[in-house]
Amino acid sequence: MRLYQGIRSLILTLFRKILFIWVRTDVSGNSVDALALDPDKPVCYALQYSSLSSRLVLEQEVIRAGLPGPEDALPVKNGPSHSFFFLYRRIGGFFRGRQAPAPTSEFRALVHYGLEHPDQDVQIVPVSLFWGRSPDKEKSLVKLLLSDTWSIAGRLQKLLIIMVHGRNTYVQFNQPLSLKQMIDEYRHNEERAQRKLARILRTHFRRVRQAVLGPDLSHRRTLVAGLVRTQAVKEAIRETAAKDDIPPEKVRAKAYKYADEIAASMSIVTIRFLEVVLSWLWNRIYKGIAINNIRVVKEVAQENAVVYVPCHRSHIDYLLLSYVLYKNGLMPPHIAAGINLNMPVVGPILRRGGAFFMRRSFKDNPLYATVFNEYMHVMFSRGYSVEYFVEGGRSRTGRMLQPRPGMLAMTVRSFLRDHRKPIVFVPVYIGYEKVMEGRSYLGELRGKKKQKESVFGLAKTVRKLSNSFGRVAVNFGEAIHLSDVLDDVHDSWRQQAYDAEYRPAWLNTAVSELAFRVASNINASVAVNPIGMTATVLLGTERLAMDEGQLIRLMDQYAALLNDFPYAGTVTLPEGSGKDWVAYCEDMGLISRMPQKLGDIIGLEGSNAILMTYYRNNIQHLFALPSLIASLFENKDSLRRDKIVFLASVAYPYLQSELFLKYQPDEAEQVINQWIDVLIAQGLLKSLDDDRIGRPDEGTEAMLRLRVLSRFIIQTVERYHIALGILRKYGSGKISAAELEEQSALLAERMSILFGLNAPEFFDKSLFRNFIANLQKNGVITTDDNGLLCYGEGLDEVAEDARLVLSVEKRQAIQQVTMMGA
């Protein structure tokens, strides 16, 4: 018997070595730490379908990872003779191999052992294996033969698949299941215990397969034709034909053309081609890609329709997220792309990579709007993963832009129509150390006209590929279940019926709440990097320069603030210390060094001084509250703690709306108090008698730290003061919101020139617009029948409190500028 087992083991080893002459694998989850295995309990691996090739791949990957071996006999009496089993056995001959839901003898023996030995446990590790990854397009027999899809391959088909796709094999080890826990409730019914464990494993394998392959896809022409046949589009065709006096056939042809213009045509060939090209590209232009919290996506993708909502900083975002998901065993999403990207050559490639195209505006074209809405509904109801940017366009300032409601509203309305498939939003922060479009953003912020995307523009970008753009981080944030948002806004939403055109009265509230949660969760997943830390500190100095040793100490101390009071568990901080960060920024060419006998001076020069505001703005929200507290001591040696809390709480709603801070207004007081304690512990403030808080003595390094910290947010407060100053100068009922916005932006731009404020967002109209809207929302100002802004004494109090954070010079400068503007 022992001789037989030895020969058998030798033969299997030989087969495995022959197989891996050709096969190449990409594996995830194959470590003791990732699986959290208990070393005191035996391990048994579970594969879904009996297959010699799958067994050989499992053995090879277990050996490579140093995991407990599948060939080892389980230390259980009367159990399987090895530590793996197939859930289902194969039925049929060589040419007609088919799977049937018939549990294997090893599976049954393991369940029997578990029932017979209730004091023993076995860790069952499900392992999923994919020979190539392709959505089933049902387009041709060749595609079905040569792709690992939802269909179950016979032996001959499997052989062909291995020959074609063996070098693109994906293996995923998943968290172990406890045999004891799975079958414990059926101690006296072995058949039911077998059915329960088989059902759990079957469900697990199905969810993993959906996450990796995506749902089954229909042929694109069938999908496009089906959109035109939906009831909503038929009705839109009738209405358009009647309104414009056009024959219905022509309108129907136009609807078909719209659908064809919109729909993606995802191709696994294109995706694999892009994987190769992008792997080369990332290695050429980046020093590495850090991926954090991918576990969240793998969990929610198994049983939900996932909407990826990344921040939008670069055109690279599209490609990078799809690449990261694919490399981690998840199907790339269908991506909402602007119609401007549907260029010759580039457009077809993007479409086959999963992009669907949308026009910038649906206004005055209800037929197009209906077709697009129906396309989105098909995506969500069939469980596709989708990606879109809630900001609408790329951020030119490095800040999170105010979300646009369009795509979010379509998603919510689609879910209300059919909520059988749960929808989960996954916020994604994509952080660049050096954004590729940085220089062009500077030109646009200075008034240069935005250049239209073109093939020639793309060719110019290729010239930049010889440059290094540092490292890039892809951080996945806390998932948002759409049903939870709707429960909080309107808990009886499930009791209503919704058709394609119905818009409930509470829809806007739900979309606004969803938009804020998405934006704040993106910001709560920020990746802090050396560029951002260096930019933040240097831009907080008066002359944009500092002694190197002092700069290093300040960066280390501000990093300690983020460690002492973490903003969120999904925020990532840079490795190393301030010394390493200065050297890194210098190597990237973003800072300059001026040698000096008393110590080198590090500074920002030329366009880099403005460009670095972009990277500071990436992380500004992390320092918003401690910086606001520090700014209150600009003109005061000490303040009562309750006064600090009150003033910061008054300002908080405006900062929260602008920077998408995650704390709710009713949490603000508690968080502000916590920050006061942290600042005291760090020596930036000190506790005095009578519940007063004082600042450090003038001339000390602690006072310098506090002053620099206050400047992280001071320009935001100055903007608020400009708007309030203009409004008070005109008087109540004398100026409209649009005029106030315009006047504020003009005067802010003038101040930026006069006083050398190197921050383009300082005079961004949208920020003034948001501030004015929040003054109205909070009841500080109202609008009369003529559309003019009215206010009472409350505005004067807010304005006087704002003066506390401004230096004498700035107060006088702003007063002078507002008087000129009036």
From TrEMBL:
Coiled coil: none annotated. Pfam families: Acyltransferase, GPAT_C. It catalyses: sn-glycerol 3-phosphate + an acyl-CoA = a 1-acyl-sn-glycero-3-phosphate + CoA. HAMAP family: Glyc3P_acyltrans. It is an enzyme of class 2 (transferase). GO terms for cellular component: plasma membrane. It is found in: Cell membrane. It comes from Marinobacter subterrani. Belongs to the GPAT/DAPAT family. This is Glycerol-3-phosphate acyltransferase.
